């Protein structure tokens, strides 16, 4: 009887223990064992110095002492995959976290972390499945909810993303890093009231979370529609931080971002110089440093960051393409990372050749790229060459050859994605690429006086993605062929966009509308065209987003005043007689 009773107790206790394991939220950093926190802090210091291997060793020790130390796992996953992920490293990391899950079966945290490992390997589908498994074990697990919200946002489902982020708030607890991320995600969907609340909570728990200040400022401005009072308060906060922490790069980083939010590039540049004077490698080491990521046609994710990437991105700001070419060539000679050269530098070098009108060098590089990169990147190069030859007005046969090659490659890619039930955002991107290449193909055919052959390309482009330039070019093609009803329909669609070619489209429409005005006034036609296009864009989610405008042609602009970053105020009426450029801050 005693043995039987003991067994019964064991069977009762085990399920309860498993339920407890599933329900417990991962502890925030400040509540992890002291020894684990010590190793984690040491890892952070090594990362600041750029000593990655030592940092990884410290993170491993912190995780050994506290297996569900989420923040340590985040840094560990980031550093293990590195800034340049290759398939072998990604596979090894996934295998490691699959083993960790076996050791802690039933842990919501470990399912979430395995999902992060999958995501780092470019296996987003598998990652989402793990996040959902995490929520089955712990319905309010904030980390998993945030990742699902981010996935929804990638699919342009802002409503669902907001719901996930708001759910994540419910059990976020007193975890400052979690609240920091959550505030940023809420701000990204314009849930400014919630973002502001979480940002303030994060600062209350840990005043050294300086990264939260730009999020907090954005939320304040967004919540108040950038009112004078909110602007003044944010400007005061920026000035206070800059004055009180003149030697802390992290604080100055937040200050720099604050200046940028007010478009004060001069002040932001000055702060950046101060940061680099304090720590020349600061930006190269930051998790938020410039990164470049591609997913190859084989599904391999390649991610790049560091000084070489920063130099290349800075070179992109140079106005002379010949100077850009020199910088890209120099970096390519210095780097030992073949993937960086092939996938990051060569496309930029190719574009610089196009800007410099050095099509011969661009073609040579495109031939090299086609041999070693995936077909989509090569197709982009073909389209670039097609557009370049079209712009020159010479070599149209060569332009058409490149355009045909791009169309074929993008069409194959779209078919592959649709047949494999890939995520909606990937299919949408493939449609955009094919639509753009078809538009170029149609324009080349028109330039070759093959207007009738151009129409099918332009029609297919417009079916894939409604765009102003395509509608206008198709309308002009119809006019040239004498198909006036079709021309009117396309030109009316083009006018419904608030784009750079609106006036050109309106002029063409007025030219051919003629007697139709007596039957259907052109104003009515345009209203119907705008309503039809907006409805189509809303249903497909793939059209160009219309810009609603209110034009006061010939009228005096309403007077208003704004606060500058220096704290003073200026009225628009006080600038009468001067040329004024208005650069408005916005929250979208």
Q: What number is the mean pLDDT?
A: 81
Determine the N-to-C terminus distance.
70 Å
Shape: globular
User: Helix fraction?
Assistant: over 70%
Oligomer: single chain
Question: Which segments are poorly predicted (pLDDT under 50) over 5 or more consecutive residues?
Answer: 1-25, 541-555, 563-567, 583-588
User: Major β-sheet, in short?
Assistant: 2 strands, antiparallel
- What portion of residues belong to β-strands? under 5%
Total number of helices: 29
What does this structure look like?
The chain is mainly alpha-helical. Helices cover 71% and strands 3% of the residues. A hairpin with a 5-residue loop joins strand 1 (291-295) and strand 2. Helix 10 runs parallel beside helix 12 (212-223) and helix 18 packs antiparallel against helix 19 (338-355). The N and C termini lie far apart (70 Å).
Fold blueprint:
Layout: H1 2-23, H2 34-49, H3 52-65, H4 70-81, H5 87-103, H6 108-120, H7 124-137, H8 142-154, H9 158-170, H10 176-188, H11 192-205, H12 212-223, H13 228-244, H14 249-261, H15 265-278, H16 282-285, E1 291-295, E2 301-305, H17 307-315, H18 321-334, H19 338-355, H20 359-372, H21 375-392, H22 396-419, H23 424-447, H24 451-464, H25 468-481, H26 484-496, H27 502-513, H28 516-519, H29 522-540, E3 561-563, E4 569-571
Antiparallel strand pairs: 1-2, 3-4
């Amino acid at each position: 009887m005693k043995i039987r009773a003991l067994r019964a107790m064991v069977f009762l206790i085990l399920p309860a223990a498993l339920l407890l394991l599933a329900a417990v939220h991962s502890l925030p950093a400040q509540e992890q064992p002291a020894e684990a926190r010590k190793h984690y802090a040491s890892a952070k210091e090594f990362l600041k110095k750029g000593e990655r291997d030592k940092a990884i060793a410290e993170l491993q020790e912190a995780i050994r002492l506290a297996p569900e130390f989420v923040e340590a796992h985040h840094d560990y996953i980031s550093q293990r995959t590195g800034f340049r992920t290759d398939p072998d490293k990604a596979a090894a990391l996934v295998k490691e976290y699959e083993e960790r899950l076996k050791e802690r079966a039933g842990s919501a945290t470990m399912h979430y972390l395995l999902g992060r490992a999958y995501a780092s390997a470019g296996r987003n589908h598998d990652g989402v499945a793990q996040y959902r498994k995490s929520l089955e074990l712990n319905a309010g697990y904030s980390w998993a909810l945030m990742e699902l919200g981010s996935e929804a946002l990638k699919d342009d489902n802002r409503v669902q993303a907001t719901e996930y982020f708001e759910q994540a708030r419910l059990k976020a607890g007193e975890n400052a890093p979690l609240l920091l991320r959550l505030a940023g995600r809420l701000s990204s969907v314009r849930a400014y009231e919630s973002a502001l609340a979480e940002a303030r909570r994060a600062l209350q728990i840990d005043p050294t979370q300086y990264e939260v200040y730009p999020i907090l400022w954005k939320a304040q401005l967004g919540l108040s529609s950038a009112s004078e009072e909110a602007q003044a308060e944010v400007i005061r906060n920026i000035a206070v931080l800059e004055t009180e922490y003149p030697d802390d790069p992290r604080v100055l980083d937040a200050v720099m971002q604050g200046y940028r939010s007010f478009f004060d590039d001069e002040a932001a540049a000055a702060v950046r110089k101060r940061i680099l004077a304090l720590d020349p490698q600061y930006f190269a080491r930051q998790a938020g440093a410039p990164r470049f990521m591609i997913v190859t046609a084989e599904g391999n994710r390649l991610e790049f960051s560091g000084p070489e990437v920063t130099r290349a991105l800075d070179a992109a700001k140079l106005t002379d393409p010949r100077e850009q070419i020199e910088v890209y060539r120099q970096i390519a000679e210095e780097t030992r990372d073949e993937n960086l050269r092939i996938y990051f530098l060569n496309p930029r070098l190719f574009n610089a050749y196009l800007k410099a009108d050095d099509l011969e060098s661009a073609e040579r590089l495109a031939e090299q790229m086609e041999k070693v990169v995936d077909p989509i990147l090569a197709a982009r190069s073909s389209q670039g060459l097609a557009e370049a030859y079209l712009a020159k007005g010479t070599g149209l046969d060569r332009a058409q050859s490149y355009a045909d090659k791009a169309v074929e490659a993008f069409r194959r890619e779209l078919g592959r994605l649709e047949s494999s039930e890939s995520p909606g955002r990937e299919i949408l991107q493939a449609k955009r690429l094919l639509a753009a290449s078809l538009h170029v193909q149609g324009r080349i055919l028109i330039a070759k006086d093959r207007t009738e052959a151009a129409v099918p390309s332009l029609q297919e482009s417009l079916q894939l993605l409604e765009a102003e330039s395509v509608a206008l070019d198709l309308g002009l093609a119809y006019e040239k062929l004498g198909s006036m009803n079709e021309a009117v329909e396309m030109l009316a669609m083009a006018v419904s966009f608030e784009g750079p070619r609106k006036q050109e489209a309106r002029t063409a429409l007025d030219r051919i509308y003629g007697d139709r005005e007596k039957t259907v006034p052109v104003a009515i036609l345009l209203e119907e065209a705008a309503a039809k296009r907006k409805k189509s864009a809303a249903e497909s989610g793939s059209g160009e987003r219309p810009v609603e405008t209110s034009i006061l042609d010939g009228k005096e602009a309403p007077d208003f005043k704004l606060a500058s970053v220096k704290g003073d105020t200026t009225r628009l009426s006080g600038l009468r007689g001067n040329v004024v450029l208005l650069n408005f801050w916005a929250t979208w």
